[in-house]
Recover the amino acids of this structure.
């Protein structure tokens, strides 16, 4: 049963939120020992929330559009009094004194938050193997990774542990795991969803977004979490466009471009390319015009991203100093305590990115690296703007291939970074993009097709995604 | 040609308050060198006259109305701190004075 059906049944008093939750908790009990989607299952809090939803219905009140729907949260979103770790030793056991805005919005919509999901430490990675608490496994094949960094949230939806989930996407961390786990994942327009209470990785790129088993559920979840928040100064002030109501309106006359530079990027597998072409054919069959498109600067996205994101991270992660929260390793003076705490508390990938960012920002290298990357970011935005004069939406692979084996890419960080080549440009441009499952690859594992659009084009992305979903082999 | 030396990495580690073993220093230097080498395509690009983008949308200062509101609960915040004294965060000596 999808989230929309669960909510409808709960609102109508035909299904109890407690019964829905108990079924999901039983599935988690059965299988999460193997999958490890969750860092922390909030059994007591979830039972109380589900019981409250049932009471509301009994009292004749409407709990909201996600009444009784189970949801998982990536463990980098603050939950008051509930452990929030970023899958890092440095925050192990810390309980935030406040809720993220998205947490409040979910609760106000009647959703039942079931737990906090595993991620690559501080959202840095593409496989959920960089977690201090061990890797998450792909529910389709447990010898494979779920993608990352929001791998736990993607796996939770794919395994049926929850109907829906939230992730965060800085360079593809929602869309790539969605593709590898065979679910829908979406990065909204920058500023569409409040980042208040999301642990910052790269503030000019980070955005929270939905995971769901189908496009319709993702649309409902996006509407619940979107909207202006005075607590996030980068939150867009205008009302977000509705997406669910126009979802089924089709793509007649829509101009679709397949991005040349992304389909011909380094390392894209042949079966993935074939699926992108077939998705284009499905849109054409439904009345869209489909041509090839060019975004020349997109090929530089990966390099620019791996200078900009670490630079911002090196600054954002300075706050983990052992003074106010989380781990402290004592030493004779404060500076030594800071160093001892960070050395013990951060994993290797986080250290690598902090050092890379510190280097890119340091005197003598700033202009060559960080400054140059910021200019490339402008080129990417300009090239997208030119493409969107001719096209309404663009199409590309989400990830270069299907889910890979655990350990296959951990030895060489650069190989891991190449996973993000198709997803990064949208983050640099602040634009929305969505991954929708489109049939299996040659190995039988899920393939995702990415739909990209200009700022605030979510309604068009969802219309295109609905057509692709319908035609999926 | 290597783009970053072990001395460079030791320097940025110190700036970032991280301590590396000799083995880690070697490993990280090689890995960072490979990433910077990949970024060489950006270095080679002619971006003369292109304005830098720090943020996807032009932002000016965003101010809230100057009205007092709820703040975090002090006891709840301090309960999660590693060390507390007199309702404050306690740290080891910072200025070289005796403990």
């Amino acid at each position: 049963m999808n989230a929309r059906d669960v909510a409808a049944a709960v609102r109508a008093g035909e299904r109890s939120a407690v019964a829905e939750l108990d079924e999901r908790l039983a599935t988690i009990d059965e299988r999460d020992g193997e999958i490890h989607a969750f860092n922390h299952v909030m059994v007591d809090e979830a039972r109380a929330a589900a019981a409250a939803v049932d009471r509301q219905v009994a009292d004749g009140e409407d709990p909201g559009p996600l009444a009784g729907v189970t949801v998982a949260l990536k463990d980098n979103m603050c939950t008051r009094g509930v452990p929030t770790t970023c899958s890092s030793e440095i925050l192990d056991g810390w309980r935030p004194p406040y809720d993220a805005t998205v947490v409040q919005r979910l609760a106000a919509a009647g959703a039942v938050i079931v737990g906090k999901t595993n991620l690559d430490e501080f959202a840095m990675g593409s496989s959920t193997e960089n977690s201090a608490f061990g890797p998450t496994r792909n529910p389709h094949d447990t010898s494979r990774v779920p993608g990352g960094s929001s791998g736990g949230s993607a796996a939770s939806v794919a395994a049926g542990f929850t109907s829906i989930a939230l992730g965060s996407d800085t360079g593809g961390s929602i869309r790539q795991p969605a593709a590898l786990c065979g679910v829908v994942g979406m990065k909204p327009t920058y500023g569409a969803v409040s980042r208040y209470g999301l642990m910052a990785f790269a503030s000019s790129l980070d955005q929270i977004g939905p995971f769901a088993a189908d496009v319709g559920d993702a649309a409902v979840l996006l509407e619940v979490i979107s909207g202006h928040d005075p607590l996030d100064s980068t939150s867009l002030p205008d009302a977000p466009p509705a997406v669910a109501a126009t979802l089924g309106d089709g793509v007649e006359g829509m101009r679709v471009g397949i991005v040349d530079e992304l389909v011909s990027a380094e390392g894209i597998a042949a079966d993935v390319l074939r699926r992108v072409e077939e998705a284009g054919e499905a849109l054409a069959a439904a009345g869209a015009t489909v041509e090839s498109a060019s975004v020349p600067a997109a090929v530089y996205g990966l390099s620019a991203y791996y200078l900009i994101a670490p630079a911002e991270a090196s600054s954002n992660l300075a706050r983990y100093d052992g003074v106010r929260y989380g781990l402290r390793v004592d030493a004779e003076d404060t500076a030594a305590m800071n160093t001892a705490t960070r050395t013990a508390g951060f994993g290797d990938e986080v250290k690598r990115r902090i050092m890379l960012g510190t280097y890119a920002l340091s005197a003598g290298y700033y202009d060559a690296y960080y400054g140059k990357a910021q200019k490339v970011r402008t080129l990417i935005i300009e090239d997208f703007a030119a493409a969107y004069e001719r096209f309404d939406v663009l199409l590309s692979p989400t990830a270069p291939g299907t889910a890979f084996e655990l350990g296959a890419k951990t030895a060489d960080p650069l190989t891991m970074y190449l996973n993000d080549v198709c997803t990064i440009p949208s983050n640099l441009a602040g634009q929305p993009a969505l991954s929708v499952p489109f049939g299996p690859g040659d190995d039988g594992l899920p393939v995702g097709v990415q739909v990209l659009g200009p700022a605030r084009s979510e309604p068009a992305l969802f219309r295109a995604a609905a057509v692709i979903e319908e035609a999926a082999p | 040609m290597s783009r970053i030396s072990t001395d460079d990495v030791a320097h940025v580690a110190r700036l970032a308050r991280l301590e590396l073993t000799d083995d880690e220093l070697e490993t990280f230097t090689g890995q960072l060198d490979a990433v910077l080498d990949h970024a060489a395509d950006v270095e080679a690009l002619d971006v003369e006259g292109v304005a830098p983008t720090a943020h996807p949308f032009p932002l000016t200062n965003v101010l809230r109305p100057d009205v007092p509101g709820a703040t975090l609960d002090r006891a709840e915040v301090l309960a999660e701190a590693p060390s507390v004294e007199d309702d404050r965060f306690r740290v080891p000596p910072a200025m070289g004075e005796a403990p």
